[in-house]
Amino acid sequence: MLKVVEERDWSQDGQVSPDLDELVREGARRMLLVALDVEVAVYLERYRGVRDERGHALVVRNGRARPRKVTVGAGTLEVAAPRVDDRREGERFTSRILPPYMRRSPKVEETLPVLYLRGLSTGDFRPALKGLLGEEASGLSSANISRLIGVWEAEWEAWRGRSLEDVDYVYVWVDGIHVNVRLGEQDRLCLLVMIGVRPDGTKDLIAVEDGYRESTESWAALLRDLKRRGMRAPELAVGDGALGFWAAVRDVWPETREQRDWVHVIGNVLDKLPKRLQGRAKELLHEIMYAPTREEAEEGMERFEAEYGPKYPKGVESLRRHEDRLLTFFDFPAEHWRHIRTSNPIESSFSTVRLRQRVTKGPGSRKRGLLMAYKLLRMAGERWRRLNGANLLPLVRAGVQFNNGEQIEREDTHQKVAA
To answer: In angstroms, how far is CA 217 from the centroid of its own chain?
Structure first.
């Protein structure tokens, strides 16, 4: 079994880093290491039955070489290549991908980012390998490429079936993302994505699953599976009001409170107003969104309705439709408001997935599309920032009440202190 190389990501605070070269360098490094492991595994399998007179294997893995730097067009990669101890007379293993003394290779620098980007969803490595290794890419034949992809698929399958009994999520962000991986004339992949925050403030990718048009049935199946694997109901869920998720969560976790995504709401409202009025309307909506108290937010809604209601009732209706669920965040710590007013952790992270879509040329598959999203989101997750005010999350989980972002002191607490 191959060991999957540890990943890192190049997003910060849920935002994609502007340094795309850094992302490509890390992608090239990770894919190169996995490709080298596959090449060695194939070599070992070929000579598995070769033994000496005492029955000892003559071709075995021998750890990794000392890290060395390989300069490519994207930058310099530090790589610790796997080693093979080949004790057959006159024979020696030499990597065709990364020969022992290679320090600089124009072919590697041109094709490894493509190898990384294209391989996850299409499995079409041949053009990249032709440029990298020439016509004789025997270490990574089509069959071996499928084996490499299998490593990622096995990781994803294990992850999606993992137990959730030992983890806890106070808040979750949810969204349904349509991915333009070509699956047919009309069929597009819809990804159901959930990200959660633990009581220590760290964020996790909880689920990436295939869903049919974000339907209630698809979300309900996902939530029931999470519950079956031991996940407790979160205190708050954040997402777009159009999701089938909300009907599903009321059925599976009725105690979970709901917060509508302000970014989606503002976009929906502005779409129903003339462009000449959208600037002013956006300012008013932001005043409501960033109001310091629920009372001031409600007053802002009244002003918005008075100004735009007579001529643009549909815009006001979009704002008022989920009014209570737009203002749920006031019942949670003020330090958390910037995190729970929107589903930004998902939206910003998926900018990497949407970037990835532009290099998917051939027909894809639902499984490969899910795998692509899973890998990129896991990468993003390793650099998600902790929530502000993480010390308050255990209080939220314990049922401590907040009003306009401030903790409500209970009378029995004062009595205990006085005693």
So the answer is: 23
Report how many domains make up the chain: 2
Please write the tens of the pLDDT for every residue from 186-230: 566 788 999 999 999 999 999 998 876 668 899 999 999 999 999
**Triad 2, 76, 62: Cα angle to 5°:** 35
Residues 202 and 120 in one domain: no
By residue range, what is the domain housing residue 100?
Answer: 11-159
Residue type (1 letter), 347: E
SS3 30: helix
**Do the domain assignments include residue 138?**
yes
The residues that bridge with 253 in the sheet, in sequence order, are none
Q: Which pTM does this prediction carry?
A: 0.67
> Is 410 a member of any domain?
no
Residue 254 to residue 252: CA distance in whole angstroms: 6
The span from the CA of 176 to the CA of 173, in Å, is: 11
Element (H, E) at 339: helix 337-340
- d(C-alpha 177, C-alpha 2), whole Å: 31
In a shared domain, residues 136 and 95: yes
User: DSSP H helical segments within 20-174, as ranges?
Assistant: 20-46, 106-119, 126-133, 142-160
